[in-house]
Every structure is written in C-alpha cells, then in structure tokens.
Write a structure and sequence with these properties.
globular, Rossmann fold, 10 helices, about 240 residues, five-stranded parallel β-sheet, alpha/beta, single chain
Length: about 240
C-alpha cells in the first residue's frame, strides 16, 4: 500500500507540474527581444550551410514562411531566378531574432551574392500582441546592418512587410503599415534599396483577396507571380 501511495503521489506531482507549465503566461516581449539572436531551427540551419558548400550563391533570400514557400508554392516563378544561382534561406514561423542568429552563425560565410532580398517581421507582430512595431523594425535594421557588414559588396533589397488580414482596418494590417513606415528610411542606395510592393496584392478598397493569399497571409502561386513582376525590375538592376 505504501508503494502504491508513493506512485500516486509521484504521478500527482507530475500532473501538477505539467498543468503549471501549461498555464504559465508567455514571456513578455521587450525592446531587446527582436534584436537578440535565437537559435530556433538548427536542422534547417544545417541544411542551409550544406547548400553553401554545394555551390555558388548568386542571389540570396532571407525571411520567414512567405520566403520559405517561394520555391515550392511559387515554383514556376522561382525557376526564373535559376540563372542567378538562388538560395532560399527562409524558415516558417521565424522572427527577426531567429534570422539574426542564423546570419551570425554561418549563413553569410563563404558566399558572395550579388544581391540579398530580405523580408521579415510579420511574425514579430503576429505572434506577440505586445510587440511594438518599433521593436520589430529595430530587428529588421539589425539584420540589414549585419548583412551589410558581412557582405559589403552585396546589394540589399529590403522589401516592405507584405500586407496581411483581409481588410485595411485590421489591427495587424495597421501594424504592418507602421513597420514599413519606419523601415523605408533604412534605404541607403546603392547599398540598400527599399521596395514596398504591398499595394500590388490589394484591390482599390485595400482588401486582400483570397485569390492571391488564401489565408490572408501567405501568397499562392498567383501571389508569387505578382511578387516577381513587381520586384524584378528593381532586383534585375541590383544583379548587374
């Protein structure tokens, strides 16, 4: 009986611990959160390092799931980059701090791309209601600065964060606009070019169509085509 009671006590304590963990409030974001590197996806990171060893990278893409899905969901459009030896270093669900860790731990080493396309930040505000747009913007700036420091000959194309949510009055849509209003000033031609193609995804009322982004966040094949058409005239010049 003593043994059975002991087992029950251990199980009860374990359950209490699990419940406590599940009920713990999320860690509050601070001004340092978006600029402090975090190693979130070591396996994908290792895959990117392997890609670097496999051959030249003439055009690099850095970002989150929107960038990550480009070669798959937008494969016909992605194929147009083939002559430039592209590499997609986007990872789903990542935020600025995650990209910062990756680019300070090897993903910019041993490469000499003509251009780097950067778009990141939507998950900073999408994952955390308490994330200030200024914090997300600061994370983006640190990424740009790090790329410029490590790849001084490479041209940077900083994209405005894509619009999200169906209507223009949505809170997250407004936060995206506020981030872009800050990061547009990071442009320092010819080294850093800023481009906001967000309006290309919207109708005259500012509505984001499911025909372009079915979940009001991630582009489908048509959306990636719109992206390419809007970006290419600028990117092509940077690749020369």
């Amino acid at each position: 009986m003593t043994y059975i009671r002991l087992v029950f006590a251990i199980v009860a304590l374990a359950l209490l611990g699990t419940a406590a963990s599940a009920g713990d409030p999320p860690v509050a974001r601070t001004a340092d959160s978006a600029i402090t590197p975090v190693d979130r996806n070591p396996k994908r990171h290792e895959a990117f390092l392997k890609r670097i060893k496999e051959g030249p990278v003439g055009l690099l893409f850095l970002g989150d799931s929107i960038m990550d899905a480009f070669p798959g969901r937008g494969k016909d459009t992605w194929a147009k980059f083939a002559p430039y030896n592209p590499a997609d270093f986007g990872i789903s669900a990542e935020r600025t701090e995650d990209v910062l860790w990756r680019i300070t731990n090897g993903e910019l080493d041993g490469i000499d791309p003509k251009a780097v396309v950067i778009m990141i930040g939507t998950n900073n505000i999408g994952h955390f209601a308490d994330e200030k747009v200024e914090w997300a913007a600061a994370g983006i700036k640190k990424i740009v600065d790090t790329v410029r420091e490590k790849l001084p000959k490479t041209k940077v194309l900083l994209l405005g964060v894509f619009p999200r949510s169906v209507t223009k009055d949505d809170v997250l849509r407004k936060k995206v606009a506020a981030i872009n209003d800050i990061i547009k000033d990071y442009a320092q031609p010819p080294g850093v070019t800023y481009l906001d193609i967000g309006p290309k995804f919207l109708d005259e009322q500012g509505t984001l169509s499911k025909d372009i982004m079915p979940d009001a966040l991630h582009p489908n094949a048509k959306g990636y085509g719109i992206w390419y058409d809007a970006m290419w005239p600028v990117l092509e010049k940077l690749l020369k």
